[in-house]
Structure prediction request, 246 residues.
Amino acid sequence: MSRTIEVPAADGTIDAHIFTPGNADGPLPAVVLFTDIGGLRPCYHEKAQRIADHGYAVLMPNVYYRDASGSLVPEGKSFRDPDVRPTLVEYAGHLTPEAQSRDFIALLDCIDNEAEFADGKIGVIGYCMTGAFALRMAAEHAGRVAAAAGFHSARLAEADDPNSPRHVVGNIQGRVYFGHADKDELLPPEQIACMDEALAAAGVHFTTELYKDAAHGFTAKDAPSYDAAADDLHHKRLTTLLEETL
Prediction:
């Protein structure tokens, strides 16, 4: 069950979707799902619905609303295709930490005002580049975010990146889970270690797990790197995290 919604934000209007279980009765705990670099598309609608079916109201925004609405990856194409990827990279470049922060406020306002969402703490999930978004939202709204998860997260802790979320994790109060691909060229072992060190030093309750023989994008069914076993494991871990925190 899903419906589209327009969310007023400081930089425009976010087109978004709310997913609930088919047998939903009353408001449900809220989960924000940020897509990977490919944006809104069928495989993420399916992913959001699968999460919602466990008893949550899932808010999935178009992270690229400043530049375009709806799906940006044409049917039959992959976000990795050379005629698609440059546009996505350009739009992703507009998602600065400051822009993300403004969007977080708008999304929380939406959760506070839409009937599907229960009062209280929320979960937030990110994939690829938005693994960092999930961490940042958990840090900036520490009293609100009970759980943050990132899967095949990209460039979380580059040594020369002043915008790395490792610099803000000290504010996080909720639990953090990372499901990393052990063959991920966008998150080498030294970055995983750096992020783990930052989380441990901050006293964050976190778990890092390496998914064996998985590559970047292992949860995206429209990517050549999709791995059904790793995708199922990611849903299993998410189910446990959300049950224990929300």
